[in-house]
Amino acid sequence: MNETMSIIRQVRDFLESRQSAINLSAALLTIVLSLGPILSYFPSFVKMESVAEFLSQNATPFIVGAGFVVIMWGLFRLITARSRGWIRVDDQKIILNIKDAILFLLFFVVLVSGIAWFVWYFVWHVEEKIEPWTPYRPTVSLPDAAINIQILTPTHYDNTHPIVISRETASSLRLRPGEIILFTIKNTYGVDDNLIRCNECKNREPLKGGEYQYSAPMYAGAYEINIIVPSKQGSPVNQKLRVSVEEEESDILKEKAVITSHRENQKVTTPEYLEGECKNIPKGTYLWIVVRPKFTQSYHPQSNRPDHGPMSNGCDGAWEGIAYIGASQQTDINGRFEILLVGVDIKGSTIMRNYLIKAHHTNRWHGFRQLPEGARIYQKITVIRR
Fold first, then answer.
1. pLDDT tens-digit profile of 25-78?
2. pLDDT of residue 289
């Protein structure tokens, strides 16, 4: 009992003697945590896109963390405001009245709940899985000692063929200069997929979801992606994926659609009226403008037609359309958005049109997590709201 009372006295004296330092630390921590969500709404002030994307994806824990610190700070001030009377140790007794007990219990519950939430979020929490774009691929049984690559993002050229690499088989990709793709790797070597490295990728090791990011070179030519698979028997196995980078004006490309009214990183308002040119886009390919807030997986089709339909069915000449950038004219200032010029088939166009009809009735504009299957991106530019 004497030892317990001695510890209580020491804790009480320590807290009361360090009030100024605790107040200053809490204030600085609150400011630092608050800067995270604030900067996530103004990504133009963050020069590194990777940092901006991290802040955008983790705004919620920053906000909760700042709120948690403020609440704990306030409870601490309430308790210490009672000075040395908030808990008294007299001889063999610990004196704590009902009001003090309730205040102390509240402090303890909030502290434990906050710590438990952060442990859950950063250790056991599994974020909602965003379903990637999954093109049709024939089912292919992998041979022994082989890897299979699944492309998660739409590409300018058709890359829906099975991409299997082994000593007996080889595959290749066709990309435009500078085109960026995400892909995952599965293997039959009997090793963990997360141990496989991609030497030419932006991230040599897989991201949290197992994806690799590859950016095609800016010049046309033949290239290779070296995929290193660790081996249990000896030296790692180096598998090569061929990459053919072809210029936009390649004779193979017949269809073309571009935005001529806006340029990259242009400052815009909402709504914005867009104009452009198109060439040899056949009937059955429906041209749409799609807006995507940068660093999010949310695609919003745009239409200024009374029937909420696409800009055109096929296109050869000029086109014009509209894009709503941000939730309103008063919000999303300095936010970055991507404007995509997309071609889809009749099924994809119907999906977009039905979404817009329903959104106008319900006033719910949640967008799509992925573009319709088979969608082709003719052009993509980034703009900044002002």
1. 777 777 776 666 666 555 445 445 455 555 555 666 667 777 777 777 776 666
2. 94
Residues 46 and 15 in one domain: yes
Ramachandran sector of residue 284 (left: φ over 0; alpha: ψ -120 to 50; beta: rest): left
* pTM more than 0.70: no
Q: Which two tokens stand for residue 283?
A: 């009937």
Going edge to edge, which strands form the sheet with 197-198? 172-175, 237-245, 221-229, 197-198
User: Does residue 246 contact residue 204 with C-beta atoms inside 8 Å?
Assistant: no
Given the DSSP bridges, would you call strands 237-245 and 172-175 parallel, antiparallel or unpaired? parallel
Q: Evaluate whether residue 133 is within a structural domain.
A: no
With both helix axes pointing from N to C terminus, report the angle between 98-119 and 59-81 in degrees, rounded to the nearest 10. Answer: 160
Cα(346)–Cα(310) distance, rounded to whole angstroms? 10
**CATH number, domain at 366?**
2.60.40
> How many C-beta neighbours within 10 Å does residue 283 have?
9
Question: Looking at 246-294, which runs of residues are DSSP E strands?
Answer: 256-259, 266-268, 272-293
The answer to whether residues 232 and 266 belong to one domain is no
Residues 6 or more apart whose Cβ sits within 8 Å of residue 108: none
Q: Which H or E run contains 227?
A: strand 221-229
Structure tokens at 259: 């935005």
DSSP secondary-structure letter at 45? G
Tokens, residue 100: 């003090």
Give the list of residues 6+ apart from residue 270 with CB closer than 8 angstroms, or none. Answer: 323, 324, 325, 326, 328, 329, 385
Question: Mind listing the pLDDT tens digit for each residue in 103-126?
Answer: 667 777 777 777 777 677 655 544
Query: Between vectors from CA 153 to CA 176 and to CA 358, what angle results, nearest 5°?
Result: 125
Determine, yes or no, domain membership for 137: no
Distance separating alpha carbons of residues 119 and 114, to the nearest angstrom: 9
- Look up residue 124 and give its two tokens: 């056991």
Residue with tokens 């807030």: 293
Q: In terms of DSSP H, where are the helices of 243-376?
A: 346-362
> Whole domain around residue 174: which residue ranges?
147-245
Closest CA relative to residue 151, chosen from 133, 139, 165: 133
d(CA 4, CA 2): 5
Closest CA to 85 of 154, 12, 29: 12
For 304, other C-beta atoms within 10 Å of its C-beta total 14
Asked if the model's pLDDT at residue 328 lies above 50, the reply is yes
